[in-house]
Description:
With 315 residues, this protein is mainly α. The chain is 73% helix and 3% strand. The protein contains 14 helices and 2 strands. It has helices at residues 2-32, 39-57, 59-86, 90-112, 139-161, 163-173, 175-180, 185-210, 217-232, 237-255, 261-267, 279-282, 286-289, 293-304; strands at residues 128-132, 135-138. A two-stranded antiparallel ribbon has the order 1-2. Strand 1 (128-132) and strand 2 form a beta hairpin.
Amino acid sequence: MEFFAIQTLIGLSYGLLLFMLSSGLTLIFSMMGVLNFAHASFYMLGAYVAYQIMSWVGYWPALLLAPLVVGALGSLVEKYGLRRVHKFGHVPELLFTFGLSYIVYELVQLIWGRAAVPYQIPETLDGPLFTLFSTAFPIYRGFMMLVALVMLLSLWLVLTRTRIGLVIQAALTHPETVEALGHNVPRVFMLVFGGGSALAALAGVIGGNAFVTEPAMAGQVGSIIFVVTVVGGMGSLVGAFIASLLIGLLQTFAVSLDWSIATGLSYIGLVIAESNFAYPLLSLTLSQVAPVLPYLLLVLVLIFRPRGLMGVREG
């Protein structure tokens, strides 16, 4: 019972961090139709900018300022880069964002070096939040969950209950009409891209000190972000939320279990000898194959439900 409860909480906290990461990418795609390969780079920038600001004025100002700084950079990227290639189609957009990810990677190494930086959890959030049975649940994981849920609620309110949210959604399907009503559609798209970049940066601020802040961090999460986005359904925030929790729980439980097919067969009296040609495959434990499980889920979803769990838009 203790194992199940603690692993569920850890899995939910990891899943909510994945949602913070994927929500920006989903927002950009749903509103602009742009699949941003550099999205994980904005996550990395958020962590590094927060580390730098934290070294000057502390963690709480960094939590607010780092997403704003990275969001402003994202807006400039859309206005002076992505907007110029948008008219040529999706392939130039993909190539542009792909190249941008490498530029950010090299710039981070030039400014902060190749080694991990000491971006630590603040003292006020370091310690146990509560003890469940005999295991302490960290305050910071609870804080991660709270920030993610507040972000989800804020996104929903902005997109469904505010004027700017309605303009953003209308600009996707009827840009000419929105422009005729006096709204600047290119500026709306710039704000959307900047907002998506800021959400990725917020995930970096929260996740950078929970894990490791290093130049390779973008590559480590980049593929998982796309798995979450595709499994949830391209353009669906609800789908991204469900897929994030599903993948977070799947990986968390898998890495903690040493079960294998061979172990399961032994319980019913079928013992697989080590000399059996299938033994290496059947003896693989869930913890060993845990990194592959999200991609296996991706393949299965693409086979049986190509639009994803809650897909509302064709890619």
